[in-house]
Structure formats: C-alpha cells, structure tokens
Amino acid sequence: EPSAKVIDGKSVAKQIREEISAEVTKLKEAIGVVPGLAVILVGDRKDSATYVRNKKKACESVGINSFEVNLPDDASEQEVLKYISDFNGDPSVHGILVQLPLPSHMNEQNILNAVTIEKDVDGFHPLNIGHLAMRGSEPLFVPCTPKGCIELLHRYGVDIKGKRAVVIGRSNIVGMPAALLLQREDATVTIVHSRTKNPEEITRQADIIISAVGQPNMVRGSWIKPGAVIIDVGINPVEDATSPRGYRLVGDVCYDEACKIAAAVTPVPGGVGPMTIAMLLSNTVSSAKRAYNFN
Ligand code: NDP
User: Fold this and answer.
1) Is 55 designated active site?
2) Does the Cβ of 194 fall within 6 Å of ligand 1?
3) Using a 6 Å cutoff on CB, does residue 166 contact ligand 1?
4) Ligand 1 centroid vs 216 CA: distance in angstroms?
5) Active-site residue flag, 122
6) CB of 272 closer than 6 A to ligand 1?
7) 222-271, pLDDT tens digit by residue?
8) Helices 9-31 and 144-155 sit at what angle, rounded to 10 degrees?
9) Considering the chain, what is the average pLDDT of its residues?
C-alpha cells in the first residue's frame, strides 16, 4: 500500500505565485516599476507554443508584463539576434527568454550567448552556468527547472546537506545544473547518464533522486532506496486509449512503485512542471529588483 508523501508542486507553485504577486505590487507602488519578460519563439512546434502560452498566462496572473515575438521557422539567426539586442537595451524588459529548441539551422549557443547576463532569466548563458559551477561565486540566475526541484525539497523540509543524491540525466537545462545545485547544498552527488553502467545499483544508493531523462517509467521500485525522496522531472507522453487525446503524460519514475517505497515523490503532471514557470516569474522579478537596487 502506498505510503509516500506526495510532493504537490502545483500547490507550492500557486503559493509562490501569490508571493510573487505581492512583490510585484510592492515594486510598482514603491518605485513605479512593472517587471517585464520578453519571450522569443521561433517556428511552429506545438509543444513550444503551449509552453510560451503558459508562461504568458503566468506572467499575467502575477502582474508581470510580457512581450512576445513569434518568428517563422525559416527566420534567420540575424533576425533573432536583432530582437535579443533590442530587448537587451529595453529598460521595460527585465528578462529575456528564447524558447528552445531552436530550428536546426540556428546556432543555439550563439543565440544564448547574445542575451545579456543581467536579463538571462533562463540561466542558460555560459557565464551564469560558469558561476553556478564555481565555488565562491554566485550566478545572477539559476535555470528554472532545477531551481524548482531544489525549492520543492526546501519547502518540504528535506535535508540535503551530507545526503547522497543521484541525478539521472546531464542536459544543460536540467540534469547538469540540478547536480551543481545539489552540490552547492552540500549533497554528495552522482550523475547517471546513458553511458552509465549499473544505473539501478547506483540510483538505489540515493537519499535524493532527481530524474531528468525523458524515458517513461524507467526508474522502477527496485532502483529506489526505502525512504528516498524523488523529484521526477520527466514529462513523457504514453499511449492511452481511454484518454480523449489518445495519450497521457507520465514521468521517468514508475509512480505506483515509487509510492510504496519512497518517503516522498512528485507526481507527473503536477510536480516539477508548475514549479518551472513559478521560478521563471521569480527570476524575472529578481531581475527587475536588481536593476533598480530594490530590496
Ligand atoms: P535531454 O534529452 O536533453 O537529456 C536527457 C538526459 O538523459 C541525457 O543526459 C541522457 O544521457 C540521459 N539519458 C537518456 N537515456 C538514458 C538512460 N536510458 N539511462 C540513463 N540516462 C539516460 O532531456 P532534458 O534534460 O531536456 O529533459 C529530460 C526530461 O525532462 C524530458 O522528459 C523533458 O520533457 C522533461 N523536462 C521537464 C521540464 C519541466 O518543467 N518539468 C523542463 C525540461 C524538461 P546522455 O547525456 O548520455 O545522452
């Protein structure tokens, strides 16, 4: 029978949005500044369009201005760079986000490098990642999804210091920064990736698991140490004839099995997903405050 606590990202994210909304009001009343987020979307991927729409809606819900640019799939890299450069210089914009993935004819690194680090609310600029990796330095922004994972651990009172953590996945946007953040919190961190031998045996040693792989139900009950805390970042569509859309979303972790063994686990959907957007809002407000030295 299930015994794990469900880590309710949806409700934590709602609480965070309320906190952010109050900060936005305070900023506006004190110095007349409204935080602004610019979002650049290139191409017509449906999933990307949905993410952008959700980000826009979330901005509205807390009083952040959003500016959206939609470019066609065959837009040039120069065009994207021009928008970035305009937003870099626009004082009403405090955060700039380029929705990934970009069309294959564009050089992602060139584009991410062009965002001024002061407005890099996704935290993907190499300087921000470099600061995240270096002891004794602080990045201006931390990538939203891994930041959301750590925030969930904090808000649920999970001790990280001295614990064994396993991060499954090493992407620039989730796995790698999640591992760096856990290390900054004094966990002992192991990264499992597609070339890892015995991932099950390694993962079973973890007190804390963050999984960001993109493989439905890969992490089975036998991978989990009794009492572990599990943050499941994966969002994977699987066929489901009983759903009106013909599919449903599951995580990387076999949720039913995890519920019987873990101390706590995030559901998919309703776990990390809503936290990612909440952290984006939080980064945008921090950026506006930093721009005006407002605390
Ligand atoms: P990537 O595809 O960029 O990275 C996947 C990582 O998993 C890679 O490092 C890869 O290893 C590793 N991997 C793949 N297969 C295996 C395997 N069988 N065993 C061990 N490791 C494996 O994905 P992302 O990091 O962008 O996303 C991961 C998941 O998180 C996806 O499901 C995505 O939809 C979801 N996601 C959710 C977000 C949210 O807001 N909740 C935000 C972003 C992503 P290698 O490096 O060796 O190739």
Assistant:
1) yes
2) yes
3) no
4) 11
5) yes
6) yes
7) 999 999 999 999 999 999 999 999 999 999 999 999 999 999 999 999 99
8) 110
9) 98
- Give strand pairing partners of 37: 66, 95
- Choose, from 120, 122, 207, 252, the residue flagged as catalytic: 122
Quote the tokens at residue 271: 């776990």
Q: Which domains does the chain have, with CATH numbers?
A: 34-116 (3.40.50.10860), 144-274 (3.40.50.720)
* 99 is a catalytic site residue: yes
Q: Shortest CA distance to 265 belongs to which of 2, 1, 3, 5?
A: 5
pLDDT per position as a tens digit, 143-159: 999 999 999 999 999 99
Report the candidate in 125, 126, 169 with the shortest Cα–Cα distance to residue 149.
169
Query: Which residue from 193, 202, 236, 268 has its CB within 8 A of the most atoms of ligand 1, so it is best to mutate?
Result: 193
pLDDT at 241: 96
Per DSSP, helices labelled H in 165-271 are 175-184, 199-203, 255-261
Q: Is there a contact between 253 and 232 (Cβ–Cβ < 8 Å)? A: yes
